[in-house]
Amino acid sequence: MRAFEFHVPTKILFGPGAENRTGEAAQAEGVRRALVLYGGGSAVRSGLLGRVQTSLARAGIACFVKGGVRPNPRMDFVEEAVLEYLDKGVDLVLATGGGSVMDTAKAVAVGLATSLEELRQAFRGKKPPAEALAVGAVVTMAASGSETSPTAVLSDGETHEKLICTHPLLVPRFAILNPELTCTTPPLQTACGAADILMHTLERYCADLGGNALTDALAEGLMRTVVEYGPRCLKSPGDYEARSELMWCGSLSHCGLTGLGRDNEFPVHRLGHELAARYDIPHGMSLTIMWPHWARAARDRIAPRLARLGRTVFGVAEPDDAAASLACLGAVTSWFEGLGLPVSFAQAPMGVERDEVLRTFAASCTDRGAHPLGTLCPLEYDSVLAVYQAANGNG
Length: 395
Ligand code: NZQ
Ligand code: ZN
What we know:
Shape: globular
Strand order of the largest sheet: 1-8-5-4-2-3
Order of helices and strands: EHEHHEHEHHEEEEHHHHHHHH
Mean pLDDT: 96
Bound molecules: 5,6-dihydroxy-NADP, zinc ion
Helix content: 40-55%
Radius of gyration: 20 Å
Number of strands: 8
Number of helices: 14
Distance between the termini: 40 Å
């Protein structure tokens, strides 16, 4: 087994009604004043926000509430929240929502503990954050895994850049996971969430050629579960069992467990972030558009992994590795399509794009051609451009 480091300090409260224990979880962290963030209103309509506020009040915790976080969340919203709550003595930023609200909460937690300048530096990769307030999450959507990850992803609305910060300070202290809350997730978001959960483990799985047998077994078990229960959630949105399985997969898929002893690289996320930032499409959709075309470009290198994935997760019976890897590529693509998600620009809301725009994406993914994308299968600028062109339909 190769060396690894694993530390996931998030306390998980899982099950029906878990949101009513938010106050208890916050109290255990010594919290006195919480800033509760939410998104476009689903948490208000479902009554969740009210239950969270009641739970905090019962624990003697004062709270401020701010809504309006949008999908592909913006840095300007974070800065506004930091300025608004700077002097309020907040000691917990509590997200009530999906990945966008959780990532916003993480960034606000950095901004409130440091300064706007340090916040900007942290999200531009210039300087790690020196401090952050505690973050908690009441999760309403199975997708990003932000509830256990050390990462936050924001968007710069003007430059169309994704701004990413990864640091242990950003791992939430606790996460409230009530799968019932995810039953109202719209079909498109359910599908995008399932795709994202699969990709968090699949990217890790393809980032190496093996070693750490238990890591492979955990990864394959998780991916089999997503492949089965993602479509079940779509077919029967109120199916508690299916929603629970998908939700727990989401929390475990991006906490590092399914990639222990591996390089952590996410080339398809890198490719997809360009699309989500420019076209404001859901994150999961950006991944299903790019994965098949990246996998074709990387297939020579990752064929043994795809062959194994095909056999262990997608029921591929081909004995020959080359044939099995090809069959796996088709099976993953069909699974995405079965969720109703696009696998090309043409099928996506933005449609076919001009070549000059694809060039800006390829330049961004390779730091203007200075570094290849990925290390196991390094793709130089021209190869990255070819992947975008293939996804666009003109490759
Ligand atoms: O805003 P509201 O009204 O709550 O509606 C949301 C939003 O419109 C809705 N929704 C969520 N839960 C719902 C619900 N609607 C009804 N019932 C519910 N229970 O779903 C829409 C999408 O929400 P969003 O939070 O954007 O989705 P998701 O959880 O997929 O998060 C996506 C964001 O996470 C980032 C992505 O880049 C993207 O910005 N990621 C964060 C990661 C991390 N922090 O580790 C890793 C991921 O790879 C990803 O990059
Ligand atoms: Zn993701």
